[in-house]
Amino acid sequence: MIFGNIYSSMLKEQLAILPAPLSCAIRYLTEHDMAAHEPGVFTIDLDGIPVILQVLDLKTGDRSGLRPEIHRKNIDVQFLACGGPEEAGFYTDDGNGQVEENLLDTPRDILFYKNDPAAEEGRIHMIPGTFAIYFPWDVHIPAIQSGDTKSSIRKIVIKVPLDSCLPDSTR
């Protein structure tokens, strides 16, 4: 997992070390007013790579009501365009999670785990401009409320195909 903020003075250096498709995804977020974008699911082209752009208007919620998720074919670039704050939970997928719902073989490419109170879960505090990149081995729980108050958020998710970030010899 990698996280940062598009307003960081170190963004240029951070983008320089990322695989090109992930760098393009973050640049796309900096070059477009995602807070004003219409909600929905779109296919866009980032330097010749088709990716899915999801523009979601959500409410944050209590952690106990949210399910941990992973993806296998896609890397999630999640971005808080406006609203919030939001907390995002994460931990490493060690293969021992109890599956609640498996939709990996569908276009959604998502698997939900049952909540595991023993999981060593970290948190990212997200404010507008914050992004998090979740790889297939990163279990993540987005849209957790910060404190006792639910917040409206505009969440952007760019789904970058994992194989677009791998060296040609492994595709």
TrEMBL record:
**Highest taxon, organism lineage:** Bacteria
SUPFAM superfamilies, per the entry: Clavaminate synthase-like (SSF51197)
Q: Which GO terms describe its cellular component?
A: cytosol
Pfam families (UniProt xref): DUF386
| NCBIfam families membership | YhcH/YjgK/YiaL family protein
| Name of the protein in question | YhcH/YjgK/YiaL family protein
State the organism named in the record: Lacrimispora xylanisolvens
The taxonomic lineage of its organism, from the top, reads:
Bacteria, Bacillati, Bacillota, Clostridia, Lachnospirales
